[in-house]
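From the shared-data thread, chain only:
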Amino acid sequence: MTPRTHREVRLAARPQGPVTDDLFEIVEVPVPEPGPGQVLVRNTVMGVAAVMRTLMDETSVVPMPPYKIGEPLYGSAVGEVVAAPGTGLKPGDLVEHQLGWREYAVLDAEQVQPLDPGLLSDPAACLSQGPTAWMGVVHGAEVRPGDTVFVTGAAGGVGTLAGQVARLRGAARIIGSTGSQEKADRLIKEFGYDAVVIRGAGPIADQLRTAAPEGIDAVFDNVGGEQLQAALALANRGARIAIVGALSSQLGGEGNPTTVEIDPLSLLSRSITLRGVALYDHLDLIPEWNQRFGEGLRDGTFTFPHARLRGIEQAPRALRELTEGRHLGAVIVEL
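Structure, as tokens:
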């Protein structure tokens, strides 16, 4: 039986700095009724991502609508169809969509993506940030056999998978960056990294020079700032540098950009490629990733590092802890 009411998480105020729980409110509202051509979905899992902190600001350079005060947040979610009048979907079908942060959602049929329940054993794996990792490693940094690869933000939902993808592509040495020795140890012991530089443990350039004495061939940059600056300084001739994220700016809040000095002559003389790549330009890679990820999870060539919190009331905490760097891997909320 579908309940009469459900809970949704709304933005209560714009942040003036870090994410705090009082920026959200959890409201009980009637479960919406689907009309013809619409789908009512009971959400079962939702993901949180660093970009959500950016969307809490009134304006940003991210090509996504900012969250509105007094309205529910949005983001990736997986759920089961409850009703879908006038569509090809039926109750019980598994679907993915972008109306997370609520227990039930109504969407037009074209706004949901049906999922093969046999493709991934855990529906939460559909919310991995693997498509971004695959895009950045394969199409951005163009990692090749024998490369030395530097992945910034290696302990996040993207970075933990980017290292695995780089290894799959034949990288000879994979170096990551993170914010603690505990995470560095886990990246090396559990997720295939050969070395890790630690933010705050000394100049990144010095640590990176020690970790990559022969230089760097490919960079998957998810952070920017000092880490990108160090990668540029140590890039070998012909290196490919993919700008996939900008956590140093995103988590700093509105009006706090982190810039990087670039010497065009140095890049030119070393034939270095520097490119920004965003998943919204490569959405066709998502089915390819899901297929490879499912196969890899079954045969052991991939793992899905993630933290899982239970209950929609934990969603604000999940985003806060993600931005504080509390977790390793993706952060998922069970609804």
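The first helix runs from residue 51 to 55.
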